[in-house]
Amino acid sequence: MRRWKCNLCYRVNELPEEFNYDPVSKTYGEPQRRPEIQSATIEFIAPSEYMLRPPQPAVYLYVLDVSFNAVNTGYLQVFCQTLLEELERIPGDGRTQIGFLTFDRCLHFYNLADGLSQPQMLVVSDVEDICLPRPDNLLVNLQESKELISDLLNKLPSMFEGNTETGSALGPALQAAYKLLNATGGRVTVCQTQLPTVGAGALKCREDPNERAGRKIQNLGPATDFYKKLALDCSAQQIAVDLFLLNSQYTDIATVAGISKYSGGCIYYYPGFHTVSSPAEADRFEGALRRYFTRKIGFEAVMRIRCTRGLSIHTFHGNFFVRSTDLLSLPNINPDAGFGMQMSIEDNLECNQVCFQAALLYTSSKGERRIRVHTLCLPVTNAISEVYANADQQAIIGLLSKMAVDKSLTQSMGDARDAMINAAVDMISAYGQILASSQRMGQLPCPYSLRLMPMYILALTKSVGFRVGSSTKLDDRVFGLEEFKSMPLTMIVLQIYPNLYPVHALDDNNALNKGDLVIPQPPMLHLSSANIDRHGAYLMDAGSYMFLWLGASVSDRFCAEVFGLPNFASLPELSNELPELENPTSDRLRTFVSHLQDQRPFPAALIILREDSRQRNLFIQRLVEDRTESTHSYYEFLQHLQKEVKS
Questions:
Q1: Where is the Sec23/Sec24 helical domain (predicted)?
Q2: Alpha carbon distance 333, 265 (integer Å)
Q3: What is the value of pTM for the model shown?
Q4: Which runs of consecutive H residues, i.e. helices, occur in 332-473?
Q5: CATH number for the 59-266 domain, one of 1.20.1270.10, 3.50.50.60, 3.90.1010.10, 3.40.50.410?
Q6: What sign does the dihedral 462-631-552-504 (CA atoms) show?
Q7: How far apart are CA 72 and CA 249, in angstroms?
Q8: How far is the C-alpha of 541 from the C-alpha of 268, rounded, in Å?
Q9: Each residue of 95-119: pLDDT tens digit?
């Protein structure tokens, strides 16, 4: 009888007979060829003992703000049209259910029962004690009621066109959503455009515009625990709530975000949204909706993180509820979510490698109960120099950003900023001690693997969430912090330190060939104004946004070939579209932008800026290696670190 040894607890077990069969090659006798031995990532169909109830169907409820402010932004037309176009591609099977709830001061439910000639709106004006206007047909089978659903989506924008009601009963709408879904679980999608003002969860403005540029940041935490408590109730019933915030005024994201953070949902933010006056945000919203409606989704999930004996995981980062010490409750899970974990070494590690394993138990949109397992093995060393040599600076800055968010909420923004800088000082000091006499005097000791860490930390202190001394709206700041907690690592790094490319002379040298496409690969530049020439054009990829900067002396030929306009003076001050012109310069630039867009889950908004634009600070403030009135340049920051290390 063969035996196997667990790589986490080291227990020796007998090998089950069925493990000798390889389901891929359909042969016996070679268990080492099984998929779970060959691959670090594998998915299993879960047996019945992993089911507390039959797998739930895919259930989607859309909760839409239809107040005067919401209708005025034009978002409802974008939302309804996009959902209508993607209705056939929504993940699910023949059991998929869908429902709609709109709200202003009142709640509006929609009876979409198969057999009705048109959707029936049911209005609940008493929002103090929420009750459903009818027990059935508010959630309906998508296939059976598709015509009524399409009819409602076509009519919704015009139904509220003249609405003058300015109140927002977000809290009661969420309570109603909970009652609708508590028997099945599912996903609640909320679009909100203003501060909740009516019923449970009503809020008052806590932002003082005069303190936006201050160094002491107030009101980063919630004003009430209503949204957190409701989120925990939702989580217990396998309901996740996703928020789309499309506001032009203060919405208190610090408070309302609790409904998503603790229910395993997502938060999306479109400041100043308006389909006419803010077309870039409108395009970003539409692109995000297409991805959101159609991406893969898992329901009623739990995730457990295990590690080798002698190690322990003590802190988790992301949007979830911690059910026990190593079990995360995730009513919904999607491929765009990011998580972070902190671990500590509890005992001496006597083995030569350690293992980490994440196991996700979830229900697919087709109703299958599955277990997805990721396993990572890493070597153990007693040489600190080896740790430094193999450090992943992007993973480190990603985790540091999450830890700093927690510190800004539990202590203060100043403490969070100090902790980030101290992390750089400690890292360099420890490495300097390793080098000892081999390090030249006067040089800042930093290992090659972590050579960008000081720059990343400086950039992090200048990010929207953590910066001080620069006018920053409270909602912008809070959302900037929320992103660090839940975004994938690649997007976090772009938010902290955007990629900057010169695009005024794109060519095919070193181009990437992808099928029939030839994608230019311009060099990346440091984020410093010293690299910005007035004769050039530069593309900055900052994650959620891309900025195309046009220098005041950019060539007339570039203007003609890219924009179809004779010179710089004829370019609009601000725009967000690259026209399709039939020439190599236009083709290369549009191909390069499309290539960058394809590298992320959600499309970035493209903002085209002239050097003299009133909005130029959107670009300039991201040149994080430059000095400002209240922050160091990169060179000055290195000098500061060197001084701290010596002291």
A1: 392-492
A2: 8
A3: 0.94
A4: 384-389, 393-410, 413-435, 453-461
A5: 3.40.50.410
A6: negative
A7: 13
A8: 19
A9: 999 999 999 999 999 999 988 999 9
